[in-house]
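Q: I'm writing up a methods section and want to include an example of the input and output format. Could you take the sequence below and give the corresponding predicted structure tokens, formatted cleanly so I can copy it straight into the document?
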Amino acid sequence: MTTSIVKKNEGDFAEWLHTEWGFLMGLGRYNFKALRLEPYQISFLQNRSRFRCATKSRQVGFSFVFALEALARCHLRPNHSAVIVSYNQDDSKEKILIARQIHEELPLAYQKRIKHDSKTELTFESNGPKKFESRILSAPSKAPRGKSADVYLDEFAHYANDREVYKGSTALILHNKGQLTGASTPLGRRGMFWEIACQERRKYTGYTRQVVPWWLSSFFCTDVKAAAALAAELDTEERVMRFGTSDIVDQFEALSLEDFQQEFEAEFVDASYSYYPYDLILPCTDSEHGMCEDFADIPLPSGRIVAGFDVGRTRDRSELAVFEEKDDGRLIARLFRSYKNVTFAEQEAQLIDLMETVPVARLSIDKTGIGMHMTENLSAAYPQVQGETFTNEAKERWATHFKILLQKRKVLLPADRELVSQTHSIKRRVLPSGRVAFEAARGKNGHADRFWAVALACQKERDPSNGRTAVVSVRIIG
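A: Here is the clean output for your methods example:
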């Protein structure tokens, strides 16, 4: 949906250009094209409330508009600061990339000079005789510190330390007329963002609230105007099939109903059905925890390297999870790798590369079905390779032990949305026979395959006398 710009005279145009939305729509370009803002983005930019709360679908451009508003205010105000808090390190860097690119494509007459430029900060110097400075700071989810500033909490519901971040953010706007903005996709009926958005525990009277489900975005919706009037009265499947683009239909078919409603329809889904509540998972994630990309990047361990490999079926991915187990029992994630549309021969070659590059003490492989041949080949050459059969009994043992690790804060995971989602998707179900089954609904990438690779890696090792192959504690390479 495009917005026409009609101004009566030069005075009206100049006044409009001194608003954030006018500055951006009149002067801004992105990828060499004029900026195109959705009506809900313009509404957000026009909101002067000191406290703003936006409950939103994924991928509807709020991270983008945060960077835009911060950049516009740095150019329209002589001495302005904006702090953008993101879910993880990569997301925080992305905000700076967006702001920098928009700045570079501004007309030269309107550009402020960049005085400081880094992956997490942009500082602008005014063009007048008084060299006022304005800045955009971007950081992963930790309590902001420093001078007074506007504060943006992006994906606020997903912070492990949300209350600490919120407390630090309110302090930052105490002594100025800045704004505090929290925006997020929901993450269960828990946490500060849920409390502010839904006000079920107490009223947060200073906030204005905005809700943006997928059908208000022209990227996902074929007829935004009609959907805005009708979609809320339909059930999820009806509105997806009536108004959804192929992209949103694909998401609907790939996710469970609860996950789709939470990720794209701005609904706070009750998390009580999960074996791993969000409040159990999130404290074990670290937004600044760096993961290795290649086997050679894994640092020389002070403890043991353990790994799990879940072999994907026809429609699923294979997943590799590598952890370092410290002497005190803590398990620290070092590398995740996915294999989609990769031949089993190539997957086996990759695991050989892992074994030859890293001093792996144990590699647990799903040998059920198609994984049997790979397990036999690898275990013949590497005694620390162990085949595992995915029975209900085995899955119960792995899932239970992993829950104990989370409860004791003995595992450190990256702030990875897919892993958090997969872990939370695990359900414990009692079968008619009285046995327990652990299962997850099929998602677009399989049945929580990354979670099961993690659970395999982090499993409690049984005594060799019970039939398990002895663990190799040290292996020297070279």
